[in-house]
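Request: Have a read of the protein record below and say how the chain folds.
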Amino acid sequence: MLAAELQSKSSDKVHRIYDRECNPLLLTAIRRSLCSSTVGKKQQPEKIDMTEFNTISRPSAHPELLANGTYFPDLPKSGPLTKYRQQSAIDWRKVKLAFNDEASLELQHSTWNFLQSHPLFARPSRPLSTDESRHLATKQMYALHDANLFGIDKLLERPDFVAFFNHVLMAYDPNFAVKHSLGFGMFSSVIQALDVGRLSHIIQQNQSGEILGAFGLTEISHGTNAKGMRTTATYDVKTKEYVLNTPDFEAAKCWIGNLGKTCTHLVCYAQLYTEDGRHHGLNAFVVPVRDPKTLNAYPGVIVGDLGEKSGLHGVDNGFVMFKKYRIPRDYLLAKTGDVNEEGQFVSPYKDENKRFGASLGALSGGRVGICGIANIYLTKAISIAIRYSASRKQFGADDNSEELPVLEYQSQQFRLFPHFANVFTIKMFNLWFAKVYGDVLLKMLMGERNGHVGMELHALSSAAKPVCTWAARDGIQECREACGGHGFLKLSTLGDLRNDNDPNCTYEGENNVLIQQASNWLLNVRARGFEAFEVVSPLGSAAFLKDSAKILKSRANWKTPLQALDIQALLDALNWLVAFLLEETYAKTVQLKQKGKSSFEARNESQSFYARTLSIVYGERALIYAANKFLNNLEDGQEKIALQRLVSLCGANLVLKYSGIFYEGGYFNQTPKAMSLLQQGVLELLPLVKTDAISLVDAIAPPDFVLNSPLGMSDGEVYKHMESAIMQAPGALERPQWWRDVVYRDYIKSKL
């Protein structure tokens, strides 16, 4: 169905794909539909020219677009936030356009307008039970799918909008957005990426809404160690079927979104065995688990719900066990390996590790997407906290009876603005990273080899996903505390944002384990010599390490706070830090091996203080690297200056964070007071950021009905909105139904 629609579109749109972000679902569809004439022919790989991916360009702010009241509605003319908007030197609309163009604004507006006007998406007037939350999220998911807001035409015009569209949905409510993304996005995406043309009917049924999908890799006793999973699929030559079996509860597939109550089909990874008893590693299968007409589980399938979670209450995460359950031979996703009708396993990969990596390769884009999702949560939290801080008044000068907004206090600025800076810096990084990922993936799917690009993408995503999700975790918590007791109220939504972000730190790779992939890659390249980094880092995330010998001799030469805040100076410092930690970690592993430790033991015993810190700094340095590229492509003006301040603040806080390592390595030998200069620079930045803070929030905050917090409304009337929410809450002014237990206490037996 998708392929047929794509084939009916004019091929002149294909060239546009090369300068956009993409996702596997679209890319595979394009490859399979528009390149069908090349099937069976050996493609000649072309060298990937990465230079075209190393810039970001956003359109200039056109006056007619800035005047568009649909995309840039008038802000409230009065209220506590007005004076901050009046004193700002920037145009919030121009800042918003630095991250968007007209097409993205139109998609954002049309999507939110649909959600706001559709009765199913009205905010509940009372807290929902878990079952009610799942029921509502499911109805919303199908209503969204039926609306087809983001169809084939838009996909071809702007493949980058796949991720953008999902972020727009996540900003409103992550529950139905997650279910929709898993059920109609990831499920089809993985099948299209790993199928060999046998399961197009499954894709069609999914796109029509006849079946709902899910993705199952994790097991009860194995998560990150995918190779240790124990669900099996044994090929039966006589019936030409695979027999799926779960040996015990520890091998049950679990944490599968949509599986708890609603999905009918599952992409399931299992250990493949042929009839001769030979093991052929972990492979992906499409497994029907429920009858689409009744939602009853098929015989041989035990499927259930995992129960309540700390967040994402509308997503039904489930488990499944198989008892000699049979599926057709064609239901193996056979791109990386297949079993022929005679029962022989065949694969284009000779190296089992490479085949395993290829079978999981379709998941790599998930980590890129999570970086954006986590920043959506943090964006909402920081918008609430800063607007609240500008509205909330406490204390004042001793000689003045007027109270000051808490945003005026340096301590409040110091706790919030670093996270504010993170939001914008990560936003810039995500634009770059998503574009790089999409462009490279498209070239790969069009027949070009990925080589070093794929390895670097894997390493960078393995570092960036933990860095971005931890930034959201810590930032949301600080925002909650910065809003005091009111931030603890459920109506603030800060608790929900914190809980909904929490699983980002775990799925698609538990952060502390996943991040080891980055240091492993850096250390493996380092073992080949510094010059190898120039070859293996076409994206530029580690190319600078080719000059490590020179970098390690460099020293900070800041003389003033202004010099210390220079973005290039901060990037130079982070370059040194990565190079220094790489050398320290490499020396540590060599030392451990010389003492007789195995490679496994050396890696294990060099994580704390060494490899873990190296991976984190590598990811953090990439944020500043990409943000610097973004800023260099902006037009000069007050908006650019405001954004530069935020990136400087982000970079300065990173350098301050690792001050001990900088002193240990001698980077500040020529400038003993470097940290004092940097600290002074940060303190001087705070009031400058404060001046534009509300306008900057206006540029990134979603509309009030999406933000959905009385503490963060655009008019700043916190107490009016709180009063309305509290007074209208069901039962707020009524005595409890159990009032007799308060008054009479019949449940306490008399001692007489």
Notes: The chain has two domains: 48-68+79-120+353-727, 197-333. The chain has 30 helices and 13 strands.
